[in-house]
Design goal:
CATH topology of the largest domain: Aspartate Aminotransferase, domain 2
Number of strands: 17
Strand order of the largest sheet: 2-10-9-8-7-3-6
Bound molecules: pyridoxal-5'-phosphate
Radius of gyration: 21 Å
Number of helices: 12
CATH superfamily of the largest domain: Type I PLP-dependent aspartate aminotransferase-like (Major domain)
Structural class: alpha/beta
Helix content: 25-40%
C-alpha cells in the first residue's frame, strides 16, 4: 500500500489565497452584476517595460533561425544575464558578488521553497510572523515541524513583528540555524536599516547560522540608506543567501524569471563538524532538478539592466508607489493606522477588529478584496494587507467605495 507524506496533513486547511478566492467566487455568484476590485493578491497589472518586450521579440526571432537557434542552456543561467545581474544589482553598489554566484531560475517562490532541501531535517528554524506563507508551509511539508496549535507550528521559532518593534524583529535569545528574513516585507511593507541587518549578520556568524534573505521587493526601496541587499552588510557573504525576482521589479509575474545568490564563502556542517560549500551543494541540486529558464525570457531579463530598462522599471515601480501613497492617504483619512507603502507595494492596516471580519465587510459592502492579515501568521490578526498593484482607476474607485462603507 502506497503511503503519502503525512506532513501535508499538518498544513492548515488551505493556502491563504485559495481561501480568499473561494469567498470572492461565492460573492460574485450571489452578485453577478457587481464589479469586484481586487486589492489583495500581489500580482502586477501594468505591461512589460518596452526594453524587455523588444529583447523578448528579438530573442524569439533568433529561435526561429537555424544559425541562432538555442536548445538547452546552462541550468544556472546564461552568462550574459548572470554578468548583468552581478554588475547591475551588486558590484555597482559595492557588493562583492560574482556572476558565478548567481543561479537564475523561473521563480523566487520555488527557490525559497526548494532551498531548505540542502539543509538537515532537524535544524532549528526562525521565521517572522507575519510573513509570506511559503517559508512556513515548505518546512511543514518537509517534516521540520510538529502540529499546528493556535496558528503556530510546534518546533518553529517565530519572530514576532509588531508595532512595538516597528515590524523588524531582533535576533532571538536562543540559537537557531536557519533564519528567514524578508525586506521590504510582505505583508507589512517594512524595511530594515543597515544597523538592524548587521545584528542579524553578527548573530548568524556567532551561531554558524544561515540567513535566507528574500529581497523580492528591493526595487521599491526609496528611502536613502536603506540596504537593498544583505550583502551591503559586512560579513554577510559568509552567512546569507539572497533571493531576488523580476516579478515585481519588471512586471515578470507572467513572464517568470528570478535568481538566487549563493556566495562561495557560505558553509554548512556535516554531523562530524566538517564544513561544506553550500554553493557546490545548491549547484548540484539546481542542475539535477532544474533545466534552465528559456532563452528569450533571459534576454528579456537582461534588458532590465540596460539604461532604457532601468529607467522603465523605475517608472513602473514609481507608478505602483503612487498607488500606495493614495491608499495610505485614504486609509489614514478614515482614522485607521497603517504602515508600509513607502518602500514597498503593500500597506498594512490595523483594522481594530478580526481581519477576516474586515475582509468580509469590504467584500460584501464595497466589492473590494483585501488580504486578511491572519493569513500571514498569528501576529497578522487584526490587520489586512492592501496591495498597490492595480490600475490607477481601480485604486481610486476602490478607495471611494471603502470610504463610503467605513465613514
Ligand atoms: N517572495 C516574496 C516575499 C513574495 O511576496 C513573492 C510573490 O508574491 C515571491 C517571493 C515570489 O516571487 P516569484 O514570482 O519570483 O515566484
Amino acid at each position: 500500500m502506497i503511503r503519502l507524506n503525512e506532513n501535508y496533513s499538518k498544513l492548515k486547511a488551505s493556502y491563504l489565497f485559495a481561501d480568499i478566492a473561494k469567498r470572492v467566487a461565492a460573492f460574485q455568484q450571489a452578485n453577478p452584476d457587481r464589479k469586484i476590485i481586487r486589492m489583495g493578491i500581489g500580482d502586477v497589472t501594468e505591461p512589460l517595460p518596452a526594453a524587455c518586450l523588444e529583447a523578448l521579440h528579438k530573442a524569439t526571432d533568433e529561435m526561429g533561425r537555424r544559425e541562432t537557434f538555442r536548445g538547452y542552456g546552462p541550468e544556472q543561467g546564461y552568462a550574459f544575464l548572470r554578468d548583468a545581474i552581478a554588475k547591475g544589482d551588486f558590484q555597482s553598489r559595492g557588493c562583492a558578488i560574482d556572476a558565478d554566484e548567481i543561479f537564475v531560475s523561473d521563480s523566487s517562490k520555488c527557490d525559497v521553497g526548494n532551498i531548505q532541501e540542502i539543509f538537515a531535517n532537524d535544524i532549528r528554524i526562525a521565521i517572522p510572523d507575519p510573513v509570506y506563507p511559503v517559508y512556513v508551509d515548505t518546512n511543514v511539508m518537509a517534516g521540520r515541524t510538529g502540529a499546528n496549535l493556535n496558528d503556530r507550528y510546534e518546533g518553529l521559532v517565530y519572530l514576532e513583528c509588531n508595532e512595538a518593534n516597528g515590524y523588524v524583529p531582533a535576533p532571538p535569545s536562543q540559537p537557531v540555524d536557519l533564519i528567514y528574513l524578508c525586506f521590504p516585507n510582505n505583508p507589512t511593507g517594512g524595511v530594515a536599516t543597515a544597523a538592524q541587518l548587521k545584528q542579524w549578520v553578527d548573530y548568524a556568524r556567532a551561531n554558524k547560522a544561515i540567513i535566507l534573505f528574500d529581497a523580492a521587493y528591493e526595487a521599491f526601496i526609496r528611502t536613502p540608506g536603506v540596504p537593498r541587499s544583505i550583502y551591503e552588510i559586512e560579513g554577510a557573504r559568509e552567512v546569507a543567501i539572497e533571493f531576488r525576482s523580476f516579478s515585481k521589479t519588471a512586471g515578470f509575474t507572467g513572464t517568470r524569471c528570478a535568481f538566487t545568490v549563493i556566495p562561495k564563502d557560505l558553509k554548512a556542517y556535516d554531523s562530524a563538524g566538517a564544513a561544506h560549500s553550500l554553493h557546490a551543494l545548491w549547484n548540484r541540486r539546481h542542475s539535477t532538478k532544474f533545466n534552465g529558464v528559456s532563452y528569450p525570457i533571459q534576454r528579456a531579463a537582461e534588458a532590465v539592466y540596460s539604461p532604457a530598462g532601468q529607467q522603465q522599471c523605475r517608472a513602473l515601480t514609481d507608478f505602483y508607489l503612487e498607488n500606495a501613497r493614495l491608499i495610505r492617504g485614504a486609509v489614514t483619512k478614515l482614522g485607521l493606522t497603517c504602515v508600509g507603502g513607502e518602500n514597498a507595494p503593500y500597506i498594512w492596516i490595523n483594522t481594530r477588529r478580526d481581519s477576516w471580519e474586515f475582509f468580509d465587510l469590504l467584500l460584501n459592502k464595497a466589492g473590494v478584496v483585501c488580504t486578511p492579515g491572519a493569513g500571514f501568521g498569528r501576529c497578522g490578526q487584526g490587520y489586512v494587507r492592501l496591495s498597490a498593484f492595480n490600475s490607477r482607476a481601480n485604486v481610486q474607485e476602490a478607495l471611494e467605495r471603502v470610504a463610503a462603507v467605513l465613514k
